[in-house]
Amino acid sequence: MASSCSSFMITLALLVLVIGGANATLYTNFYSSSCPKLLDTVKCAVESAISKETRMGASLLRLFFHDCFVNGCDGSILLDDTSSFTGEKNARPNKNSARGFDVIDKIKSAVEEVCPGVVSCADILAIAARDSVHILGGPSWNVKLGRRDSRTASQSAANNGIPPPTSNVNQLISRFNSLGLSPKDLVALSGAHTIGQARCTTFRARIYNETNIDSSFAHIRQSTCPPNSGSGDNNLAPLDLATPTFFDNHYFKNLIQKKGLLHSDQQLFNGASTDSLVRTYNTNPGSFFADFSAAMIKMGDISPLTGSLGEIRNKCRRVN
Ligand code: HEM
Ligand SMILES: *[C@@H]1O[C@H](CO)[C@@H](O)[C@H](O)[C@H]1NC(C)=O
């Protein structure tokens, strides 16, 4: 692992081109002169975190989603609550659920060591999400960079902005649309649920009460998720029953077999216009990978702070 990382570094150093000029938009070589070792440093740290715990790849990917859907990709999800500051970590979609903050701290420290005060936490999230997907067998893409970190966060925006698993397909389409993401982006990005875990409390109603679910699948999930709320709420189940630690297109196969774990998952294949995309991604993993990559880049473009807005945080957990 170490040798592949250093050969990557050399390649990167050879490819560095200095691009000057002001920037209102994100671009891939934003740090190529100010922090040429950035991509290699992040990748090595993500590899190390995933080798300790495979699920961490999923958790890092989700952090980026939860950052971008709340006032843009600005690192706001990383801010800790304090006695005088309420952040997003205890918002409903994040509490007892969002994880990987310690890994982000580690990556940030490694990055600060090679180029202090230069790289935003928001950009680290974007790179870590890309690397996680690739390391777990998914596609890779060129990450656009140049985001700066917020000095604020909003618990209410997190409560309202991140769709709950009880959403129906029209609510999902509408929330994604409000951020400039199409129904195709919605379906492709939902393919992220090919990795990672969910808590019983997020899928209990589905496995006990819904009819568009494969009954043997429901029974299997019921065995570790008791019916009464309050008991076993935090018991985990894989979002993709078949290949839960591998980034592939099996999520879509599950939906076609009525084995989506979350209500919101199965909504994408329940007789609505999104059915045809689910079928496409089921038969064509290449088009899933291409559309997922494009959608991740689009999601990463949601209202970034650039130029002199925001700051480059010293520590991702608190404003400077
Ligand atoms: C379409 C609307 C979405 C809804 C309603 C939704 C909902 C959820 C829920 C309820 C969980 C389980 C959380 C828990 O029990 O602690 C989860 C996990 C996850 N979500 Fe989503 N999600 C959506 C879209 C996305 C997108 C766009 C991504 C990334 C591109 C994503 C990535 C993940 C990952 C990787 C996990 C597993 C995390 C882990 O194991 O730590 N989700 N999601
Ligand atoms: C299933 O639906 C019934 C009737 O609405 C409700 O009383 C019960 O709490 C639901 N069970 C779960 C696990 O959601």
TrEMBL record:
Protein's UniProt keywords contain Aminoacyl-tRNA synthetase: no
Keywords assigned: Calcium, Disulfide bond, Glycoprotein, Heme, Hydrogen peroxide, Iron, Metal-binding, Oxidoreductase, Peroxidase, Secreted, Signal
Binding-site list for heme b: 193
One GO biological process term: response to oxidative stress
Protein origin, superkingdom: Eukaryota
Binding site for Ca(2+) 1: 67, 70, 72, 74, 76, 88
PANTHER family reported in the protein's UniProt record: PEROXIDASE 52, PEROXIDASE 72-RELATED
Identification of the protein by name: Peroxidase
